[in-house]
Amino acid sequence: MNSSAETVENLDEALQDISEKLLDLQQSVTQQQQTNKNQAVFNSFLKARLPFDFSTIYKGKIYFISKTVADFEIAYAASSCELYGGYLVEIDDEEELKFVSDFVSQTGKDVRYLTGLNDKTMEGYFEFYHSKKPMPSFLSLWNKCEPNSMVRVEVCTEIVGKLNDVTCGLPGKYVCQSQ
Question: Do 20 and 95 belong to one domain?
Answer without folding.
Answer: no
